[in-house]
Model the fold of this input.
Amino acid sequence: MSELLGKIHSIETFGAVDGPGIRFVIFMQGCSLRCQYCQNRDTWDLKAGTEMSVDEMVSKIKRYKEYIVNSGGGVTATGGEPLLQAKFLINLFKELKAQGYHTALDTAGIVSINEDMKELLSFTDLVLLDIKHIDDEKCKKLTGLSNKLSLEFGKYLSDQKIPIWIRQVIVPGITDAEQDLLALKKYIDSLNTVEKIELLPFHQLGKYKWQEFDGAYELEDVPDATSNDIEKAKKILGI
Done:
């Protein structure tokens, strides 16, 4: 049987925003979402990326183990959508856990909870759950997909007592309506393992990637989220 390889877009060796401590961040290639505000348009294509084995990846991670461990950090798989390559991540996270690393997933969770997901999550210490939009119809417009699986994913994490950091991109006029943020708060309050809520300000820094792929950037006229936008959302969410 041939060795299972992962499709990797890129890596970041000293990440500081994708989980606690210093993180080795793996950007997995491929995504089924089509988020209008996506900053990583170049990660969508599942056929692109560099193939890498678990051993090759672990070897790269080991070079930074001292910094990672001493900072209380670990390894985060993001994307793209990392759960599209669950089998590879099962093997990777299993090996990382055996070597004492903290593991995290940064995901939208828009997948079914099958046996692969259950196994992967059994080797996962933290999930950064990116709620694209709490309103289902608005989520479909924003990303092309329903949010139902994402919300079910969060409930499963809570039931399994897996720590969660909730992430929400604040896009002026799209994700920041008071009624939507109140609905998000209600959903978050229904979960038992949420440790942190991160509000990420929308910006257009990734627009040039859309242009490289000849894609229309639909949020061309949407202003960047300001600190006031973030503070207003925090007040509604009670954080």
In short: The first strand starts at residue 6 and ends at 15.
